Amino acid sequence: MSRTGALHLASGLGGLIGKEQVKSSVEQYEKYHDLHGGEAKSRASNYADVANKYYDLVTSFYEYGWGESFHFANRWEGETLRESIKRYEHFIALQLGLTDGMKVLDVGCGIGGPLREIARFSSASVTGLNNNEYQITRGQELIDLAGLSKRCNFVKGDFMHMPFPDDTFDAAYAIEATCHAPDAVQYFHVQDCQSQLYFISLTVCTSPWQVGCYMEIHRVLRPGQPMAFYEWCMTERFDPGNPRHVAAKAEIELGNGLVDIRTTAQCLQAVKDAGFEVISAKDVAEDSAVPWYQPLDPDAGASWTSANGFRLSRVGRLVTHAMVKAMERLGVAPEGSVRVSGLMETAGEGLVKGGREGIFTPMFFVLARKKPNLLTGTE
Q1: How is domain 23-185+206-372 classified at the architecture level of CATH?
Q2: E strands along the chain, which residues?
Q3: β pairing state of 103-107 and 171-175
Q4: What is the pTM of this model?
Q5: What stretch of H or E contains 44?
Q6: CA gap 169, 210 in Å, rounded
Q7: For 310-355, what is each residue's pLDDT tens digit?
Q8: Spans of all domains in the chain
Q9: Of the candidates 213, 206, 158, which has an alpha carbon nearest to the alpha carbon of residue 181?
């Protein structure tokens, strides 16, 4: 059961960061980003710290606003936000052909909302990989409450250095997660005659693509098996010479713990460079009857038909900000909580700007597969 009360929001704020360190952690996090004098190069070399600080600080806000699944979804007219999120998760399970007995990897699983839904829907066994201890602890609580401990589990680890042997999983997916991968790290692999994989170097390169993360997914998948993901990307409409576009991109990165948002073309090329065969690729936002950013946009008919719908709206975010401010003054929430709430507002504003102008999508969908091993006939 997700935590949606104000006291849960206050008590969870900061995650495993000491309450007396929340303010300094927010300040350290902000300094990584362009809007506070930071640079993408610094974020890339410290990507794990960027993501961990971000999710320690904001996870209680996400759960308060979104529930257990921290992602967007394309929506049909008359469909609630929650219904669209479940359908979105079911879609990826169907595209992967998940069934009972399959071992599946959720890359960057958050607190496991999609993981649990997909396990229930498909009867597959799902392992969630996450590098944030607070989210894993919270996710395990929710797995136990859902009675899914025999079908779902979490593993702490970095998706650039996955703690799994080669050829472990029957399928893998990521929902708005691999966008946290650094933009300057790439693995180079070599195979010997026994088809054993060795890491021979970790090299900084000029590629702005998250090849390293995709290569790790490729490594842990069995030959012939599929990967699917929804990725946060800048679209072909993004103009790096347009100050308004650049500012919106910087707001999205600051408000969402990102290193450097890649374009759809760069993302697709990275999948191919990692060794995958691309089956299909599409910006799902293009077919959404309701704008994907509608829950955040006061001018797009944001729905207040549920508590989550209200909390995500601009008015709801302002109410939450005022509530957090009061709780911080009273000592219920730690010092620095208002700064964290401000990050959430920056995220919302940047996402709406990116969505309105069509320069950003949180749902570039790619379905690919690891090529079969022709030497062994493994499919």
Answers
A1: 3-Layer(aba) Sandwich (3.40)
A2: 103-107, 125-130, 152-156, 171-175, 185-191, 197-204, 226-234, 276-283, 360-370
A3: parallel
A4: 0.89
A5: helix 40-45
A6: 21
A7: 666 767 777 888 888 888 898 888 999 999 999 999 999 999 999 9
A8: 23-185+206-372
A9: 213
